[in-house]
Design a protein that fits this description.
- By secondary structure, this protein is α/β, with parallel strands linked by helices.
- Among the domains are: 1-32; 38-140.
- 54% of the residues lie in helices and 18% in strands.
- It is built from 5 helices and 7 strands; from the N terminus they run H-E-E-E-E-E-E-E-H-H-H-H.
- The chain has helices spanning 2-32, 142-171, 176-182, 184-213, 218-261; strands at 39-46, 57-60, 63-75, 78-86, 98-103, 110-115, 132-133.
- The protein has a 7-stranded mixed β-sheet with strand order 5-6-2-3-4-1-7, with no helix packed on it.
- A hairpin with a 2-residue loop joins strand 3 (63-75) and strand 4.
- The radius of gyration is 42 Å and the shape is flat.
Amino acid sequence: MKKENGFIWKLGMFVTIGLLLLISTIYFIGKRQNLFGSTIHLKAAFKTVSGLKLGNNVRFSGINIGTVNNIEIISDTSVLVDVVVKKEMQKFIKTNALASIGSDGLMGDKVLTISPGIFDDSIVYAPIKDNAFIPAKSAVEMDDIMYSVKNSVDNVDIITSELAEFTYKLNNGKGALSKLMTDEKFGKTLDATMDNLKASSKGLSENMEAAKHNFLLRGFFKKKEKAEAKKKEEAAKKLEEQKMKKEDAAKKLAEDKKKKKG
């Protein structure tokens, strides 16, 4: 009799624990799939869903607000995604919202993200309705990223090889730059050329100074000096006029303030 009672007690405990585990599993799955709360359906059409699966999370502002309910191929260029979202979040999702597909981390599951669109202060955006369509943004594919990385690596290889070739020529005395850096004779010739240019410039300045004192050209240079002096005088006069206008405006403004206070 005692053995029979012990067996019944153990069987009862086993069944109770099993039922509790089953109820807990149903509760957590139902909560994840939004089976027990009020929900709304939203739809978005994509060219490709990039591995999105049924049950994947739907996020808004970084918060999980629903799950992917259905994925259906409409045509060869369009895939319709139906999502279930908590009804309490409906008031935050406006008619200008956008849908996109991303990843939960670098190598994680795909996530459908709903984000606010471009706002216009002159327009009042209403909350989105049940079964409404959300415009979709194209997702950045991993293949596109890898292609871009490959192009960058190829460009680095080309630059490295060209730099190595340039360094080789420089070290082996090929090219004008190498001559400039290593050929002493070429460097002295360049220095002499620069000295000649300086001497020529100095001689030209002296000739211009002498020409100013020449009675045949004296009138020309005087006219030039007078014209430059006149320009400077006109510029100074304009600055003075602007200064006077600013002072008059400031005085007028001060007088207007006094009149208003009076």
